[in-house]
Structures are given as C-alpha cells and as structure tokens.
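Self-study notes.
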Amino acid sequence: MTNYLLAGGGTAGHVNPLLALADYIRANEPDAGIYALGTAEGLEARLVPERGYELEVIERLPFPRRPNLYAIKFPLKFLKAVSQVEQIIKRRQIDVVVGFGGYASAPAYEAARKSGTSLVIHEANALPGMANRRAAKYADAVGVAFEPALDLPNSTFTGMPLRPEIEGIIAKPAKQAARTSFGLDPNTPTLLVTGGSLGAKRINDAVVASKTALIAAGIQVLHVAGTRSELEPEVDRIYHRIGYCDQMQWAIAAADFAISRAGASTVSEFAAVGLPAVYVPYAVGNGEQELNARDLVAAGGGVLVKDSEFDAEWIRRELIPMVSNAKTLAKMASAAKSVGVADGTKRLFDLVQGVLAAAKR
C-alpha cells in the first residue's frame, strides 16, 4: 500500500488539482492512504473533508515581503512547520509528497528533503511561484501545466489535473441539461461570467452596466459574482446572477462563451472543454495570469483584455458581436480545445508512479 501526502491549498487554483489527483489515486488504488496538508484558513479546510479525505493542518505562513516583526518570527515559525510535517510523514508512513503550491507546500517540500521522502511538484502557472522554483532543484520530478514553466529543473509537461466532474463534461457534454439546472433557457446562447471563487469587481461592474445590451442582443447570462461581491442574487429575464457556484462544471457546460480572470485552473478547464473566453488577467501580481492565457489566445481560443480596458463599452463594441456570431464561436471553441489537455490528471499520476518505482529500485 502506498501512502500519499498531497500538499497545497489557499485558493481553488491550488485545491482543485490536489483533489483531482486524490480522486484519481482513490479510483486506481483503492487501498492507498491519501492525506492532504493545508491550513485552517484556506478553501482546503472545507473542500478536502467534503471530498472524504483527511486534512493535516499547519500554520498559514506567507513569505514575508517587508522587514517587520512577522519577518523576524518567520524563520522559527517555518522550522516549526517543517518539523510538524516531518512528524506527519513519519506517523503516516508517507511514501511520496506531492506539492501544488500554496502556503502549506514550502514546509512540505523541506520536510520531504530532510526526511529523504520522494517529492513531486506540480506547477499550475506559466510563471512559477517562489516555493516551487526553489524546491524544483531537489524534487524528484516536476509536472507543469503550461509550457513556459518547462524551464524549471526536472520538469515535464503534464497539463493541469482536472477534476472528475470536468472530465465528465468533456466526455459527455450536456449543454441543455446544464442550462436547465440553473433555470436558464436550454436553447438560448449563454455567456458565463466569473471572476473566480472570490469574484472580480472590474468584471462584475462591466457586466452589470452592460446587462441591458446583452439581453437586447439575445444573449443569456449566467453571472457568478463571487463570495466577496456585494451584488445580490438576481434573476431578470435571461440574466441570472448568483454569489457562488459549487457546481462550476455545470456552469462551464452551460456556456457558449465566458468572461473570466485567467487563473491557471480556469484557463486549463476552459481549454480542455473547448469553451472560448475573454480573459481579463488580474492586474495585481507578477503577470502570471496573462502568461497562463497567452498560448490559448495565440491559438485563437480566447481574447486577452487588460483589466483597465475592460468595461461596458468594450462588451458592447467587441464581445456582443463575437458571441452573436455562431461561426466565430465554433472556430474559437475548436481552437481552444486544440491546445487543451484533457488527461492532465493521468499524466501527473503517471509521473508520480515513475518516481515511486525509481525509489523502490
């Protein structure tokens, strides 16, 4: 029996691929021990137990960006977290640590190194994060979701691990049934709007301001405003707004086109399904969201718009004609699917199995 420790969390972008691999392991190795490592504050605190897996919790330790009291305390806190993970590895008899980035990953990487435990890293973004860049140097293998990240040491292109729910709608599309599940008209062209689990104010404001124009153009809207949005749920003819969607596979299945941020999981899922989109990368950060969507956009499966340029006028001038043209939609959908990876979960699983086999030798 193999025991796995899957480390990551914080946002859906880290938790979803972790759960995708966990589900694949469970389906292919029913007797495997599968444990997750995260924090009490991240989405994993809710999503991991809901999925039926045990969650080991350590303190949330963002890397200090400026000299202050936290920066002084950080080294000792980090060493304590590493020691905690070493104890978990010993207690659970872990054979391999698989890290997905996020606050729990850096201590897990260091604990794996110190304990001599096999280590596999998955980098979800085109521009790798600090913890993954550092640990890739001593990891046994690194799987990357986007080709620009192949400059990491020991890296292999695997694509993004996709949740079984997403793989299900790839294998068996159910557009009309998905629309009906949201109370939408099954035969009306549908636009999905999402800024991620927390929402995106720029996207929300632009869509609300152009709601009348979208409806007048005969475009049905499923607007997922996000948990931090102050917008109230609303149903107005063919405009449906909800705060949070815990069945995003059905939202994706229902749509012909999307407006979205360019998070790694979102870009990967849209491409694998063949859902064309306008991507509005998050303006704060190191530019990884724009890089995530770059190859997909170059292939013709999406459009990139700067956050500062995305507004109601852009929607009326550019998006409505795009979504109203069936030939354009079909061409973009085909282009998106041509660069999508539908078997990223299996590819990562196979990478992990290769590392385990090498360790046994």
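Second protein, same conventions, sequence then structure:
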Amino acid sequence: MASYLLLGKEMQEKPTINLGLEGVYFSESRIAMIDGINGRLYYCGYSIASLAENSTYEETCYLILHGRLPTSEELEKFSAMMKSFRDLPDGIIRLIKEMARNTVPMDTLRTAISALPAYQSNKYENPEEENFAESVNIISKSASIIAAIERFRNGQDYIKPNASLGHAANFLYMLKGSPPDEKHSKILDVMMILHAEHGSNASTFTSIAAASTLSDLYSAITAGISALKGPLHGGADEAALRMLYAIGKPENTAKYIDDALSGKKRIMGFGHRIYKTYDPRARIIKKYLEELENDANGEVRKLAKIEMEAEKIMIDKLGKQKGIWPNVDFFSGPVYISLGISKEIFTPLFAASRSVGWCAHVIEYWKNNRLIRPLDYYTGSIDLEYLPISERR
C-alpha cells in the first residue's frame, strides 16, 4: 500500500481529494444561503425574488454589509455616503486613461482598485469603521471606474457622477452622458442586485484566502477581481452572448445545439456547480428580457428569440434528465445590450456588483480569522541524487 507524509507522520492510505474543493466547507456565514436543489437564493434571509422586486442596489448593499435592512434614515445616510465616494481622484482617472485603450477592461479595473489606497487620507477611529468605509469606497468607485474605462476606450471624456441619481442610474449616466430612463435604471438596478452576492464562489473564496493572511481589503478585492476574470467564472455571460451570435438566427438553434452536444461541446449559459434546477436569478432576468423585447431594437429581439428557442430545446434534452438548466449568465447578455452596455464590460460590471459580497465576506471572516492553508498530496519522487550540471543528460 502506498504511503504519504502528513505533518511528519506516515499514513497508510491516500487521502480523499476533493477536486476544486467541491463539497468542502471551510467557514460559517450569515450572508447568503443557496438551495441548489430547489433553486432558491437568499441574502441575509431575504429571497432574491423579494429583493429584486422591492429593494434597490443601495439597500441590498446595506443589507449584505450589516445583515439587516436599514431604516429610512439609515438608508438615506448610506446612500449619501455612496454618492460622496463616487468621483474618482485625478490620478486614478489618468491611470485609467493610460491603460484603457490597450488593456482589457478587467485588467484596468483590477489595477485601478489596487491603486485606490494611494488616495485614501481619512483616519478612522477603529478597524470596523475603516473596513466599512473602505467597502463603501470600493463599491461606489468600482462602477465609476468601469464607466471611465468604457468612455476612454471609445475616445470620450470622463463624466463626473450625478449626485441626484441612484447608483445604477448614475452608472448609465456616467457611461452615456445623459440621464437614463427610469425603466432602464430599474433593470440595471435589478441586475446589480442579482449579482451582488452568491456565497463562497471562486472569486469570493479567493478574496477571503488573500484576506486570511491579514492583508488589506483593497488587496483582497483585487484578488477577487483576478479570479472573476476567468471565463469559467465571470466571463460566462459574454461567452453565452458570443454563442447566440454564432447561432445567428432562431431557426439555426436546434442544429447548433445538436452539433454541439454530439461534439461534447458546452452550451454556454446552462448548468451550474450548485443549482440542479432553474437558477432563480435566471428566472428574474428572463422576465425583464421579455419586457424589454417589445421596445428593444431588432438585434435584441432576435437574440431573445434565439434564447427562448435554446431554452426550450435544452430543458427538453438535458434539464429534467441531467439537471442542466439556464443559469444567470444565459439571459444577461441581451439585457445588457438593450441597456447600451457593450460586451467588453459585462465582466467588470459583474465585479462592480459583486464587490459588496466580497467585502462583506472578508469582513465576516476576519471576525474569526484563520490563515487558509490547505494541503496537497505529493506524488513526485524523493531523495533524488543531485548531479552537477555537466553530468546531466
């Protein structure tokens, strides 16, 4: 029987290895509860459907950071704090302008967030106050950074935030230079709520792992952005949109799916590590896409028709049999396109929305911090003879 070393003791059998840490619990949390079997998601006890219908992104941020809904006075104060942090320092604006034309937006966002401490001069009375203020700073400025990135990518000037607008509406204003209509602002607000938090996913875990060394909050969020950049995580909505464009027309959908499945290719926007039924966030986004379809341009209507056809085919083929259902990424792309948001900033906007979840999990973990240090099982050689370089072949 093979043996291995663990903390200096020789054991007699190989340990169980959970690839991707699947099914491994590493912490307790009161922030989100995901019921993947029944397709339910809760933020601090409130269902995602209830929050999407009744709340705002600002109120949801307060809930995630504090674990409870605010009073009207608390929400007014919190919203004012978010607005006070929106504008970007001149140095950050110059940095974004320098990077935006030749760098992918996620790289620019990551670098800009990591540079924010250089412009933080406030002194706080205690770590709790500092962590909260830094969280609000990151949440508020990340949206402004993304709007600036898109403006500079297109040869346009930076637009200062509008204090009369809510968080989602202000992002659209900073993106386009004109106040958005109420319907579009509401839809983006809902999209940001849906992406605000989702338990111990890859980017959240990465943020926590970085923070467990007692690094600072900005470093932890920079780590989270780095993890989100990957196409298996944050880039999935853009990949799903590319698939829709590849299908081209609704009548091509069935053949595309059949060809992809026979070639063992993944159909983007379907399946989830946690959900074994319909992603509750996808249900909400689909409803808004159906509302948008009538007044959207021809491109969005065509994409929506392809999606409805693909959804019907995939549920029939794989949904009930293998538990592969639409996820949050499937319907997101056409909704963003209908709001005038380009696919290049889908993932950065995901990061801006999720920043509150990252901050909340890091702060929660710090309350009972333990350095994250898992083991790996060594399968290489030992006690090899060291040969001088002249004798190596």
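Instructor comment on the second fold: The domain at 236-338 is CATH 1.10.230.10 (Cytochrome p450-Terp; domain 2).
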